[in-house]
């Protein structure tokens, strides 16, 4: 299946390179398979993202605070090389950081800390600290490029009949712009591998990878929620429990050696390991969230504890809504659709939205709604936010010069980001409620990312979907068919 044959936006865009693919094109492209093309495109776009960071690599990280913002090339990576003790050979989670750092221990999950440490080991000691920081960023960029390729290839292999959908990931502007801001791509790559294993009906391997991903970033654990709902509806409990228990086991294997400390007083939780969780709880309202808009516009802003409570309550309500949608939809939703909605709910309700968080959603969006028009609308909103946050930081760090975006302008780009994500959520929900509009299912597929759920019949359904039309018969994909016409409106 080629995007220029199925998507009008892709067909129009292809005019720049000669138009839609012809019927004889396969004869000339037998060696250049879709997966290889996607991998090459991903590397090319990643390299363009590195070029976009060139002003900072050539000095803007060090000549002044506002310069790295006006060039929109900021990255946490070089700053944390010295700021988190890697330059001094300190061991993450075990060695306390100097008092002038403002952070007692590394505030990242264990596997991300290991990723950072491996990059530090590969960074030469010679030269000035600035030279080492630049080399550290370059080493991390190389490792993150491998993660980017893994993500795109996994997306291509999940929907085996639609590998070209992975071009949405490879060509996503926000993917290239945010890939080297932080270490999120590592967790995203593990998550993509987990979804690939689930799609190949390997729940044990999928669970291990989800557990490892959650040990690198907390959000991948949210995928267990959609799996619970969908396995409940399909009655596939064995696959779910195998995934959930293996995920917990993998997470414990990675974390327990760092988490538990023993001394004369007995066993206790290591303070360095817990720093990620306590920091997440204690940090106040921060960039990118609607909570920041509220706090900047309120005379008496909400306390951190209140925001934590309200954000948690909102997230739980969203999860209940997604669960209800999964159990009452006229046809069982695809795994990627519910996964996207749950992670998007976390992004929308969280008290902070760093620009690289868009990386969490891009592979899920490509699988949930593989349509270029909707994807590009959302990406335009995310690029606007990417530029807006750096211009706002330039404004706040430029002193009396006030170069950049003022507070009101930054609040506007936050709203643009929120509305763009909500728009994509809305079209995914529409596809769930109106399965005949789902571009994946139009081709006769049920749930390519569903693994054991693909083609499974329903065992537990709520609402009108639990009472199919009289004389209706359920086919192998969970769709009710009456007189040769499916209840979802498709033939």
Helix content: 55-70%
Number of helices: 21
Strand content: under 5%
- Main sheet attributes: strand count, strand direction, barrel closure: 3 strands, antiparallel
Q: Shape, please?
A: globular
What order do the helices and strands follow? Answer: HHHHHHHHHHHHHHEEHHHHHHHEEE
Low-confidence stretches: 13-19, 480-491
Distance between the termini: 20 Å
Cα Rg: 24 Å
**Structure summary, number of beta strands:** 5
Question: Which sequence of strands runs across the widest sheet?
Answer: 3-4-5
Mean of all residue-level pLDDT scores: 89
Helix/sheet category: mainly alpha
Q: Can you describe what's shown?
A:
The chain is mainly α. Among the domains are: 1-8 and 34-86 and 123-182, no CATH class; 283-482, no CATH class. 59% of the residues lie in helices and 3% in strands. It has 21 helices and five strands. It has helices at residues 3-6, 8-13, 34-52, 54-63, 67-70, 76-83, 110-121, 129-158, 167-170, 173-178, 184-199, 203-214, 224-234, 237-259, 271-282, 290-297, 304-328, 335-349, 358-368, 372-397, 407-433; strands at 260-263, 266-269, 473-474, 480-482, 485-486. The chain has a three-stranded antiparallel sheet, with no helix packed on it. A two-stranded antiparallel sheet has the order 1-2. The longest helix has 30 residues, at 129-158. The two termini are 20 Å apart. This is DUF2029 domain-containing protein. One of its GO terms (cellular component) is plasma membrane.
């Amino acid at each position: 299946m080629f995007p220029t044959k199925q998507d009008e936006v892709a067909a129009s865009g292809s005019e720049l390179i000669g138009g839609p693919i012809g019927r004889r094109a396969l004869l000339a492209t037998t060696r250049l398979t879709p997966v290889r093309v996607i991998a090459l495109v991903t590397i090319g776009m990643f390299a363009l993202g590195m070029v976009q960071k060139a002003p900072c690599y050539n000095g803007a990280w060090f000549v002044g605070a506002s310069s790295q913002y006006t060039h929109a090339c900021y990255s946490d990576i070089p700053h944390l090389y010295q700021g988190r003790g890697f330059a001094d050979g300190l061991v993450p989670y075990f060695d306390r950081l100097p008092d002038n750092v403002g952070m007692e221990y590394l505030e990242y999950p264990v596997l991300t800390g290991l990723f950072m440490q491996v990059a530090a080991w590969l960074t030469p000691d010679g030269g000035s600290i600035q030279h080492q920081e630049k080399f550290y960023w370059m080493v991390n960029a190389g490792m993150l490029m491998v993660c980017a390729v893994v993500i795109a290839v996994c997306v291509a292999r999940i929907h085996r009949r639609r590998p070209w959908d992975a071009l949405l990931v490879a060509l996503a502007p926000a993917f290239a712009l945010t890939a080297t801001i932080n270490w999120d791509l590592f967790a995203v790559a593990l998550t993509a591998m987990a979804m690939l294993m689930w799609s190949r009906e390997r729940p044990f391997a999928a669970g291990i990878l989800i557990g490892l991903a959650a040990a690198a970033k907390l959000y991948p654990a949210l995928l267990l929620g959609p799996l619970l709902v969908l396995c409940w509806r399909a009655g596939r409990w064995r696959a779910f429990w195998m995934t959930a228990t293996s995920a917990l086991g993998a997470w414990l294997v990675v974390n327990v050696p760092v988490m538990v400390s023993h001394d004369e007083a007995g066993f206790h939780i290591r303070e360095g390991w817990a720093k990620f969780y306590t920091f997440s709880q204690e940090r106040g309202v921060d960039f990118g969230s609607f909570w920041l808009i509220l706090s900047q516009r309120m005379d008496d802003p909400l306390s951190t504890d209140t925001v934590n409570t309200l954000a948690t309550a909102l997230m739980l309500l969203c999860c209940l809504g997604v669960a209800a949608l999964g159990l009452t939809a006229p046809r069982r939703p695809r795994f990627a659709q519910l996964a996207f909605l749950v992670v998007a709910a976390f992004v929308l309700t969280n008290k902070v939205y760093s620009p690289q968080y868009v990386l969490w959603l891009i592979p899920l969006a490509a699988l949930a709604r593989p349509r270029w028009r909707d994807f590009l609308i959302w990406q335009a909103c995310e690029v606007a936010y990417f530029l807006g946050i750096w211009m706002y930081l330039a404004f706040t760090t430029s002193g009396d010069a006030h170069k950049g975006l003022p507070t009101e302008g930054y609040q506007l780009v936050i709203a643009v980001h929120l509305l763009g994500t909500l728009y994509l959520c809305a079209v995914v929900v529409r596809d769930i409620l109106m399965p005949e509009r789902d571009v994946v299912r139009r081709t006769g597929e049920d749930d390519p990312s569903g693994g054991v759920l693909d083609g499974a019949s329903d065992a537990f359904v709520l609402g009108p979907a639990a009472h199919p039309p009289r004389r209706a018969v359920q086919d192998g994909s969970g769709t009710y068919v009456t007189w040769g016409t499916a209840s979802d409106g498709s033939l």
